Amino acid sequence: DKVNNAPLAEGDYRLTVMHSDMALEDENGVVVQRPVADSAEAQLWVIAKGDSARHYTLKNFATGRYYCPPKALLDTVKTSETACDIRIENASVNKGYYVYGDYDSDFVGDVLNISKETGMPVITWVRTGTDNQKFQFKAAKLPEPVVESSSSSETVPGSSDSGISSSSGTDAVVPRAVRPANTMLPARQGYSD
Question: What is the pLDDT of residues 90-113, one digit of tens each?
Fold first, then answer.
């Protein structure tokens, strides 16, 4: 099988494991394989060039955390708030890339036990060339940010100020409503209080 030595392009990707055709997902700080789901934002990764040739950072779109492989054998690959410079090299044009945990020791990301079970974690293991160590980087389109649309007569509940409305028919964010003391409302998806 041919090898493609061209560097990976910076951009947005879904990483799938060659042997299981499942996607890598950041699940509570641990990288696991899950069935591909177009709506699963935790399966989207942003790749950027690192400090040297063939080194990159992989940032999870949903969590904002970085793929950070351990340098010890059998340790689970976790994500970190701090960027980790990782080496990525093509294993095969048809089968994908190795994501190194420790290049000098030849340690790579590996789906534990060559498992096809959903939720199985990625660990660090010696590069053996098996398909559970090969990850395909499939170009993906990141979701657009959600902008709420307001109607011409929408006003803030509980507000006596009629000046708080949107009559333009354009997309707008409605100001936060006044809340009774000591009460919490759940945050809308994509927003935080």
Answer: 999 999 999 998 888 999 999 999
**Sign, CA torsion 120/121/122/127:** negative
pLDDT value of position 151: 52
Q: Is the pTM of this model over 0.85?
A: no
Q: How many residues belong to the chain?
A: 193
C-alpha pair distances (Å), 177 with each of 29, 61, 108, 132, 186: 34, 30, 51, 51, 13
**HEC string of 41-84?**
HHHEEEEEECCCCCEEEEEECCCCCEEECCCCCCCECEEECCCC
Q: Which has the closest alpha carbon to 24: 48, 44, 47?
A: 44
